[in-house]
Amino acid sequence: MLFSIISLVIVILVVVFVFWCISAFWSWLGHGKQVRRVYDQDLISADIKSKIQQIDAIKAAQKLDRGVHGPVIRLNRQQRAEVRKAEQQVRNEFLDHLKLGWYQIVMVFFIGSILGLILEEVWMFISAGVTESRVGLVWGPFSPLYGVGAVLLTLVTFKLRQAHASGLVVFLVSMVVGGLLEQLTGWGMETFMGAVSWDYIAGGVPGAITKWVAVPFLFFWGILGYAWYKMIMPDLLWALGIPTTRRKAIFVTLLSIYLIADIFMTIMCFERRAERDAGIPPSNAFEEWVDENFNNNFMSERFQNMVIGG
Q1: CA 180, chain centre distance (Å)
Q2: Where do the H-state alpha helices sit in the chain?
Q3: Residues facing 307 on adjacent strands
């Protein structure tokens, strides 16, 4: 019992550390904080702007001379509330004029793949005491099902926001989107890759409609979609913004190339695993390399939650 509690605390600390790393890294890529936007658009009072100018002056002096120590200046609670209200106004105006593109899609997929995997690992440990590798790609801590789900929810809820849809419509549409995603993903994995990651019927899940779709999880998708619509999607797209710096553009371009290569290699590894099980030898140098570096032992250890090859 004590070991389980200690392990859970460690997992939670790891999750918090990952959130902190992502936040710090994104702040470095973007060269600043969101408060600069409301300052530049003159949406805050004069006294707050004056304080921000004093903070900027102190920071500039410290850059020129590391020995300079200015007074500590911070916004009070009322001023921070005014800044948050102004930020929300700017956020809504930003979303009203935003056109989703490759930049936002790649970043949402990246974030969703990592955080979805972490949450699943934590949930399985808490609910079943299971610790196993539940990744979906051969390289990196990614679960593409969550990444694709995050992208679909973002695209759908963004369109629903533009149409000013009601909460009930958002809930129902999210149920359909989630169900279709699970059905197509589960069917595709079993049909083309010979792998089964979940099976609601075999698992005895109440309300199972197919092997990959069950009523309780449809309600989960509906609730998640509504939460995504109300809280996650607006702040996520607002935080991501648009690639206004060369650092962001370069980072997302390299990330896109990496993810495409990762997905391609995963498909090739599963294909060769199925061919090896069928007794089909490699037909070229690339397949020989795959067999040597991604053999059956690697696949079984890497994808511990999947049933591969029947």
Answers
A1: 20
A2: 2-30, 35-40, 46-64, 77-97, 102-128, 144-162, 167-192, 215-227, 233-240, 246-277, 285-293, 296-302
A3: 196
Report CA-CA distances (Å) from 182 to 46, 57, 173, 278, 299.
52, 53, 14, 27, 22
Summarize pLDDT for 19-36 with one digit per residue, the tens: 566 656 655 665 445 556
Residues 6+ apart with CB under 8 A from 188: none
**Strand, coil or helix: what is 134?**
strand
Residue 103 C-beta-side C-alpha neighbours within 13 Å? 19
In 3D space, the residue among 236, 222, 248, 221 whose CA is nearest the CA of residue 145 turns out to be 221
Buried b (16+ CB within 10 A) or exposed e, 133-161: ebbbbbeebbbbbbbbbbbbbbbbbbebb
Is residue 184 a contact partner of residue 213, using CB atoms and an 8 Å limit?
Answer: no
Distance CA 5, CA 211 (A): 34
> Taking a C-beta distance cutoff of 8 angstroms, is the pair 18, 118 a contact?
yes
pLDDT in tens, 169-186: 999 999 999 899 889 988
